[in-house]
Amino acid sequence: MRYELFYWPSIQGRGEFVRLALEEASAEYIDVARERGRGRGVAAMQRLMSGRELTRPPFAPPFLRAGHQVIAQTANILHFLGPRLGLAPESESARLWAHQLQLTVEDLVVDVHDTHHPVGGSLYYAEQRDEARRRAGFFTGERAPELLGYFEQVLQTNSGGRGYGVARRLSYVDLSLFQVVAGLRYAFPQLMEQLEPSLPGLVALHDRVKQRPNIAAYLASPRRLPFNEDGIFRHYPELDCSD
Amino acid sequence: MRYELFYWPSIQGRGEFVRLALEEASAEYIDVARERGRGRGVAAMQRLMSGRELTRPPFAPPFLRAGHQVIAQTANILHFLGPRLGLAPESESARLWAHQLQLTVEDLVVDVHDTHHPVGGSLYYAEQRDEARRRAGFFTGERAPELLGYFEQVLQTNSGGRGYGVARRLSYVDLSLFQVVAGLRYAFPQLMEQLEPSLPGLVALHDRVKQRPNIAAYLASPRRLPFNEDGIFRHYPELDCSD
Questions:
Q1: Which of A56, A100, A158 sits opposite B97 (nearest CB)?
Q2: Is A53 in the B-facing interface, judged by CB distances under 8 Å?
Q3: In chain B, which among 60-119 make CB contacts under 8 A with chain A?
Q4: CATH number of the structural domain spanning residue A178
Q5: Is B142 within the bounds of a domain?
Q6: Which residues make Cβ contacts (< 8 Å) with residue B211, sequence separation at least 6?
Q7: Which of A74, A111, A238, B105 is most buried, judging by how many CB atoms fall within 10 Å of its CB?
Q8: How many domains are contained in chain B?
Q9: How far is A217 from chain B (nearest CA, A)?
Q10: How far off is chain B from A77, nearest CA to CA, in Å?
Q11: How is chain A split among helix, strand and coil, in percent rounded to 5?
Q12: Does residue B190 lie within any of the structural domains?
């Protein structure tokens, strides 16, 4: 199966959680909006979103084409891909648990996005800087410690899992938690310096994922876009917590 | 199977999407935090959330206990319950599509919540009234028309489905879309007065769901909590759009 991933071409964003799973599994895929030619590029993505060609159109990127199916919503894509890529546990109950964790990762992603866009996604950051400062204070002071503490607890509880989030081997949830740590280190270095001593399981998981051969090769390749100030994890020093 | 639903006892909130599915299916369930006695009440819910008793603790309500499983995240709960309650389509691809729509409902729910809590959930509305006004303007001006227009398009495209969102019979997605229309009418009556003429499919779906015998009986019972200003759909006239 050759997968087609549709996502904005210049940011990691939500698409990155899907890219990491495809890369870890050495899946054959096309990052459609980043390529040129017929049926490629952002225009091709937007045409599918317009809903005229599909009976099940996505509301927003990322979405994935797998044969005749077009699947949207990041966590839903991973719920679909996980078993096919060998990145999900076997039992239905463990798959629901993995999906539940991924949806909680998504909650964190929404929170991170809203630190710089608390008013609206179609406005520039500069147009909502005051609101962003307050929202970011809530994120660094309350939500980030709560959510990261929760994931740390999950990793510690699953101690039979050799440090993985679910069951006893790598799943897409682990790849997403790697991305969360990497993204937060980029966007909120001061916050992470404060929090990481209390998150040994998450930090170790990040390091282990980063060293996996397929992930290391991906991170060193031009396919891995750099973090930037158009994505979800943005480094605005004024939003990070002070010492 | 007797289900146990755990959710805040005084609001509809996210729990209501689960309650509607359980009620439509005449499922046997206990709304644990709304009852008293041993193993009941908010304290019982919070004890489970503390993570000391469960190897797979939820991050936040709502969550559902079904035998030995405890499942959190609203859309995940419905993904689990749907097939068991006869409220999901048969094929895997249609189930993913239903789940994708439910996750998009969840996006709208986050947007609605953030109209009155754009800074932080632990602060009072009065502490973020200025930010709320801007955020609500973005919601009424852009996000609500976009999201509701998307659901309308889905209903129109699925015209073989006799007005249902997915396939040819009622699913949990339809119950959730009923709740979205009911909630938005309560919270943003002016907005809905403007938008509804362009949403005939959604309005008709709302009316049809409301008249289903089990739903009508539920809505007339004390089990249906009234909308109020502690839940997700809150009526603050200053946040509604003006004429």
A1: A56
A2: no
A3: 69, 71-73, 75-76, 79-80, 93, 96-97, 99-100, 103-104, 107, 110, 114, 118-119
A4: 1.20.1050.10
A5: yes
A6: none
A7: A74
A8: 2
A9: 32
A10: 9
A11: 60, 5, 35
A12: yes
Q: Contacts of residue A97 in chain B, CB cutoff 8 Å?
A: 56
pLDDT in tens, chain B (243 residues): 999 999 999 999 999 999 999 999 999 999 999 999 999 999 999 999 887 789 899 999 999 999 999 999 999 999 999 999 999 999 999 999 999 999 999 999 999 999 999 999 889 999 999 999 999 999 999 999 999 999 999 999 997 778 899 999 999 999 999 999 999 999 999 999 999 999 999 999 999 999 999 999 999 999 999 999 999 999 999 999 875
Residue B77's domain comprises: 3-84
Nearest-CA neighbor of B134 among B156, B115, B152?
A: B115
Query: In terms of domains, do B67 and B10 share one?
Result: yes
Q: Is residue B228 part of a domain?
A: no
pTM: predicted TM-score of the whole model, two decimal places: 0.98
ipTM above 0.90, yes or no: yes
Partners of residue A147 in chain B, C-beta under 8 Å: 59
Tracing tokens 């996000």 back to the chain, one arrives at B143
- B55 and B166 both lie in a single domain: no
Pair A239, A191: CB distance under 8 Å: no
Exposure string (b/e) for A126-157, b if CB count within 10 Å is 16 or more?
eebeebbebbbebbbeebbbebbebbbbbbeb
What CATH number should be reported for the domain holding residue B15?
Answer: 3.40.30.10
What part of A 142-201 touches B (C-beta under 8 Å)? 142-143, 147, 150, 153-154, 157-158
Both B60 and B165 in one domain: the answer is no
The verdict on whether omega for the bond into residue A200 sits within 30 degrees of 0, i.e. cis, is no
Domain edge (last residue) among B66, B84, B102? B84
Dig out the tokens for A204 from the structure. Answer: 């170790």
